[in-house]
Amino acid sequence: MSDQKDNQDTPPQAGDEAAAADPVSSLARPDAEADAAQPEPFTELENLYAENAALKDKLLRSLAEVENVRRRAEREIVDAKTYGVANFAREMLSFADNMRRAVASLPSTAREGLDPSVAALIEGVEVMERDFLARLGRFGVKRIEALGARFDPNRHEALFEIPDEAQPNGTVAQVVEEGYTIGERVLRPAKVGVTRGGPKAG
């Protein structure tokens, strides 16, 4: 009886009163704290989208770099095919110059009355010159047509001026040494004399 009485006289605790007042919230509290500790699902999704965008950007940059390397390699191959013989062709131009001088040393008026064998020799040299230039042309080497053209410092080298008021100023009036190009580049500029004193070239 005394024990039963003691139990009845013990005052209820504060926690017990809160639990009794709201039993549902007291049971739900531990789960709420666990949910707060976990990351929000939307934040995790945003991180995945950002990572995906970064990987996509890296992939596009890598593909662009590969394409640039491929184009550069193709361009270098084309340049090697076109300009690989430039040094050799430049050295051979002196041979073309000598043949041209040999032909020009005998003007056409002096060929009349020559021995047939001498005339045949001169004609043979002319044929050799044309054939040699044609062979150079197969490798992209072409003669610069300078005579009568407007002076271009990128293609011509002016050695002297020729007073001539009849032609526009800066016109190539004389070619001392032929110039040549290979592809889009100047292999050797033409050495020329240009006019001075005429009207300005348009």
Using the 3D structure, state the CATH architecture of the largest domain.
Roll
Order of helices and strands: HHHHHHEEEEEE
Gross morphology: elongated
Portion of residues in beta strands equals 15-25%
CATH top level assignment of the largest domain: Mainly Beta
Over the alpha carbons, how many angstroms does the gyration radius reach?
47 Å
**Sequence of strands across the biggest β-sheet:** 1-4-5
User: How is the biggest beta sheet arranged?
Assistant: 3 strands, antiparallel
What is the name of the CATH superfamily of the largest domain? Head domain of nucleotide exchange factor GrpE
Class by alpha and beta content: alpha+beta
According to CATH, what is the topology of the largest domain?
Nucleotide Exchange Factor Grpe, Chain A, domain 2
C-alpha termini separation: 133 Å
Number of domains: 2
Features:
202 residues; alpha+beta; Nucleotide Exchange Factor Grpe, Chain A, domain 2; 2 domains; 3-stranded antiparallel sheet; 3-stranded mixed sheet; 6 helices; 6 strands; 57% helix; 16% strand
